[in-house]
Design brief:
single chain, alpha+beta, four-stranded antiparallel β-sheet, 4 strands, globular
C-alpha cells in the first residue's frame, strides 16, 4: 500500500495500490468529503495510471488544488520513484 500526504486539501492522506501492469486500485482517502471521495476512488479503480493522472490533474477546489488533483500528484510521484 502506497501512502501520500496531501497538501492544501481537506483530506490528509491518500492510500493506493498500483498493479504490475500499471493499473490503480484500492484508493482510500483519509479525511475530506467522504461520499465524493468514495466516488472518485471507485471511478479510478482498475484504470491505467496515466489515464487517471491525465483525467484528474489540474482539477481545482481550495488552495489551487483538490483531492482528485492530489491523487494525480501522488500517482506522478509514485511513477517518478518506481520508473528508475
Amino acid at each position: 500500500m502506497q501512502t501520500y500526504s496531501t497538501k492544501g486539501t481537506c483530506s490528509r492522506q491518500i492510500l493506493f495500490e498500483v498493479t504490475e501492469d500499471g493499473k490503480v486500485y484500492d484508493v482510500k482517502f483519509i479525511g475530506g468529503c467522504s461520499g465524493n471521495l468514495q466516488g472518485v476512488a471507485r471511478l479510478v479503480n482498475n484504470r491505467p495510471i496515466d489515464e487517471v493522472i491525465s483525467t484528474l490533474k489540474g482539477i481545482k477546489c481550495r488552495g489551487n488544488t483538490s483531492c482528485p488533483d492530489q491523487l494525480a500528484t501522488a500517482l506522478e510521484e509514485y511513477k517518478a520513484n518506481h520508473n528508475k
